Amino acid sequence: MDYQSTRNPELRASSAEAVLNGLAPDGGLYSMASLGEIPFDWKQTLSLDTQGMATEILSALLPSFTKEEMRALVRRAYAGKFETEDLTPTVQVGDDTVLELFRGPTSAFKDVALSMLPQLMTAAREKCGVDDEILILTATSGDTGKAAMEGFCDVPGTKIIVFYPDGGVSPVQKAQMVTQAGKNTCVCAVRGNFDDAQTGVKNVFAAVNDRNLLSGKGIRLSSANSINIGRLAPQVVYYFRAYANLVGEGRIKLGDKVDYVVPTGNFGDILAGYFAREMGLPVGKLVCASNANNVLTDFLETGRYDKNRPFYKTVSPSMDILVSSNLERLLFLLSGDAELVKTLMEELKETGVYQVPIDLLRALHEVFWQGYCDDLDTKKAIGMVWREYGYLCDTHTAVAWDVAQQYKAAHPEHNPVVILSTASPYKFPAAVLEGLGHAAKGDEFDVMEQVRNETGVPIPKNLTGLREREARHKDVIDREQMLDYVLKKASQKEWF
Ligand SMILES: *Cc1c(COP(=O)(O)O)cnc(C)c1O
Fold first, then answer.
1. Residues with beta carbon inside 6 Å of ligand 1?
2. pTM above the 0.85 mark?
């Protein structure tokens, strides 16, 4: 029983149960009490290839699985799925190192975790003696849904339904989803916005649980969103990968500190960096980069979290978020105080605001720095990085790049900086083209071609030819029909 709820130490679970359940029964997140004590040799881990690192790190964080079991799961998750053998390559851009997390099957960083999660989930199902088929329900604003489907595609014992807002995702994202292959995948548009789809999914979970609608049917619902520890743990690996690369290239000596700058939304990616630090990796500062939705910038500065503020739709949409769920795990790990976390989360729910005690704020400042970058500066950064260094970055990466320069200017004594790059520029081609100083013409697919013609940077294989590929998933429903839709799908043995 290595895991407990961040809100109640009595609610314990094994790591396999934590992966299977996703969320603790009281609404808290599953966390270890502390990461410092798990048996783990960080130096030895740095000498391994990426899959070897993943095996060590994941079996340390999820001790329900033996190292041998984990090795097999890692191989199944990643072999042949990414552009490069090392999964997440690093590139030198000026003085900084860019860690490319978008070389996976859907060109977004979520591939790293969502390739692994299905393997962990099916293995956890076996460990826990659960025979039921797992039906994943996910609402998506674009990236998560596609990456989740690609991860779960034809994984035995699982099915996945993705709901997206009709007209609320980009043409590229829509094309990526509706052309999804696999016998166990299903995509459905919901009339409404993303919040409608997400609330709808939550309502389906509640209705199914409250009224036992699937009991005896051999199916249980689960979710692939980023509060699952099985999605967080795989992200720790690339912090080690980047560090090992810097050592290998002679840019640092083993033991030197490195600062990481992370474009942040739900706080999963950057929290994985904190895990790496607690496991021994010499991490200096973790720099939290936000867009105009700068709730985290204010929080890390003042200790006051206040989500009562305007919501902006930005050119870095995967970071348009006002409640960063994974922050709860950090507050728990730093304070060790589930009672405090419970109180803060209740305040957040009731008033939208909480203030952390001063000692907790001090502990945050030891590890984190913060900054933000609006749309105008995001596009400027894209143009500037291209002209100065010939490196083409996406909008989310550009936010991190801009904040990295702010950080270095404020801290002349900084360590070598690694900037996490979370998406291919071709996922957000219109803003990228504007950043390069050109007006976008035609639809998003035309704009992709324009970007390629301007820069010569190749379009990732999974995005070329999308326009011509046949749509397999054409359902469009109202929000009120989501429960019936799920029940109907759950009753069908074969979807294709
Ligand atoms: C999800 C996402 C992020 C934010 O990551 P979090 O773990 O939610 O903080 C940043 N960039 C891109 C492209 C993403 O898809």
1. 108-110, 143, 226, 263-269, 318-319, 396, 422-423
2. yes
